[in-house]
Each structure stands twice: as C-alpha cells, then as structure tokens.
Amino acid sequence: MLLDLVLGYECNLGCDHCTITSSMRRRNMSTSQARAAIARGGARGMKRLQLGGGEPTIRRDLAALCAFARARGFRDVKVQTNGLMLAVEGYLPSLMRAGLGRLSISVHAHERDRYERLTRVPGSFAHLERGLAAAVASGLPVEAELIAKEDTFRHLPAAARWLAERGVRAVRLWLVSLSDGNAAHPESLPRMSELAPIFRAVFDEARADGRSAVSLHLPRCLLAGYEEHAVDPAAGGVLCVTPDAEFTLEASRLGGHVKPPSCRLCVHDASCAGVREDYAARHGTDELVPVEA
Fold this sequence. Notes:
single chain; alpha/beta; TIM Barrel; globular
C-alpha cells in the first residue's frame, strides 16, 4: 500500500484549475504531525511513500521528512512537486542525500505563455525548465503529470514530445477535477469521448519509442486497443493522510465509483473504477459502453 501524505495546501503557484481554496491554504501539517503519520505507516509495514501538497518543496523540513521515512522502513520515497524549487542550486542533491528516490513533476503546459496563464505566476516557466533539467540530470526516475482540461488537452501529444526531448520518458494523464476550488468552473472539464483520441495519440508515440504513458481516469471501454494504458490510481491500495483527514483513495470521492447498470455486462467491470462523481454530475455516464466478452 502507498502512503500518500498531503503535507499541506500552501503553494508557490496559483493555478486556475486548482482545487485548493484560499482557506485551505492555511491548513498545513506541523513537522511532528507529519513524522507521526510516517511512523504510523512504517509501523503498519508500508514501504512506499509519496510526499505532496500543496507544494511540499516550499517546506523547510522536507529533507528531514525524507530521512525520517527511510529510517522508518520506507524503501520508495517520492516527492510530487511542481518542480520550481528543483531549479535552486543544491536543493535537489540535499533531498537525494536524505533519501528521496523518485520525482513526480506537474507540467501544466509546455509553452511559456500558456503555462504562466494557468499558473498565474509570471516567470514561473523558466523555473520549471531549470527544475526539469536538474531532475533529469540527477539520474532519479522522473515522471511528469499532465493535466487534461478544456484549454490543454489538445496540446497533450506535443507536451509529451516536449518532455521526451528533455529526457522525461514517463507521463501520467490526469483529468481536471471540479471539486472545492475548481467547482465553479465546470466548463474546464472536457468530455472523455473528446479526450480519448488525444490520449491514444500520446500512447501511440510512447509505444513507438519505448516511453511510458498512462491515463488515470479514462475507463478501458473508451480506450479499446489501449487498455494497458488505463491505470486505476487507487490500485494496490492508497492511504491518504491530509491535515484534515485520513482515508483510502478507493473510498474517497476522488476514486470513481459511478457506473451505469450496463457496466455489469462489461468484461472490465471488476477492474474498472467507473468515473468520478464530479464527472458524472457534469457529463453523465452515457459515454460508457460495456465491452462484451
């Protein structure tokens, strides 16, 4: 099982699709609370840890938390970040010395103007570029998170190519959420039937040169011939610990669960999480067509 530790909601970007509200940004774990959550996970025999937020790299205690996790038996320590702090000389090596083993970097767009419109921080793209370069040069396994929203999804194949040219050979495609801070922008969530051919184009290029590319939210019935690229983010078990709550990803509102009755006839039913509640409320479930044996 993966321990997904959300250290807090403060961030150095202000992305237009972020689900974190202004009041949530004030809620962050103390170092002792984070250490206690890591210790509980270690006592349960958990070996995989993801440190995220918000933006975890703006915390002064991140390296110490990586080291603490290693001391408590975690063999796989990953930081999920927007990558900007990785541009600071000496910062990434300090995390690696403390036990960081992998990086997951959110790349909202691969073009400067579009990226800075989304992040709403002028000059942030230059930091992203330098951070990506430092991550690749470190030799750590690096994956990029690409967000599929109405004004980005058509550019995803180009973004994946841009990342590959810079040495990032693994991408994960996320579907924008309409929860909390982004609930007022339902127009940002495209239909999955529009996304599917774009995702397949990403997968085709990844297959051609041996890169990894997966979708975290599109059901397999919409990716015929590409089923191996459809990944359930809750697979294998994920325990989420936030400043406010503790829950399994599978049981949360982010874990899918919405299916029409016809899905019981589908060969993928047992392994498919369906669609998220926010998606079903916006677009319904008529796109889900059962795949017969």
